[in-house]
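To the structural biology subgroup,

Please find below the input and predicted structure for ABC transporter substrate-binding protein, which we are adding to the shared reference set this quarter. The sequence is reproduced verbatim from the submission form. If anyone notices a discrepancy with their own records, reply to this email rather than editing the shared folder directly, so we keep one authoritative version.
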Amino acid sequence: MTARTQRTRLLAAGVAAVSVSLVLTGCGSSKPSGSSGVNASATVPAVTSDAALAALVPADVKSAGKIVVATDASYAPNEFKDDKGAIVGMDVDLANAIAKKLGLTADVQNATFDAIIPGITGNKYTMSMSSFTDTKEREASVDMVTYFSAGTGAAVKKGNPEKIDPTDLCGKKVAVQTGTTQADSVKDTINPACTKAGKPTVPNDGDKFDLQTDVTQALVSGRDQVMLADSPVIDYAIKQTNGQLEKVGQVTDTAPYGVVLPKNSPLSKAVQGAIQSLMADGTYKSILEKWGVQAGAIDKSVLNGATS
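Predicted structure (tokenized):
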């Protein structure tokens, strides 16, 4: 991963008198259950093709009949593998619905997060839905079509026995996913601020793991004292670990997720139109409710609308 640069903007981390705004992201995976607000068996309304939107699809994609969609399937409830190994989640259902609107099918493929954008620019994948935060940095190399909004939070062991203050993580053992902006932020923002304040830094620039499942396990096992991830992932992990974890501090710095497409691709406008159509006909709302993430709903999809 070229660093999960700004998958989500996070967390004001004050270091003594130093207040630091972080940019973080993560990935979590576990099995859906009714207690998590997820109803994975819920039926999503049937989606029919929109002829006007289908006409915007580039000829090569239309002839292939499918969109190859990359996702890092370790980030429940957004994208993860179910008990049978199938890739499921909010992003997967939305990708399938977008494809149907365009008269296509979605071929969803698992990929490591850091390989996705290079895979898009290298034409390995047609697009990606993998909880990418829309940022100016990303828009320099790819198109981003917004479809969801998420903030970032922190989780600790139940009862917060270590008395973790998410606004001051100096010297704390912090679990993050490899290549994420959480990892970048520990290294580039938190630790420099800790040093400036004369405080100990986060060891190892954060304990980094390839999968969010391993990040969560590091916290559950006590290897680390706090983990950082997108707000829906934090909420889901707390519920799925049966009360072993709890959220600490406030969700901060909400920002939009974006569908990732090749820069200046004709497909970008088609995808934007498909998302807006799904919002209008209620499919979008149904999908978000199915996965218990309706709090992140937006009402307008924007192409390359990042402000930072």
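Summary notes: The longest strand covers residues 245-262. Confidence is low (pLDDT under 50) at residues 1-35.

Regards,
Lab coordination
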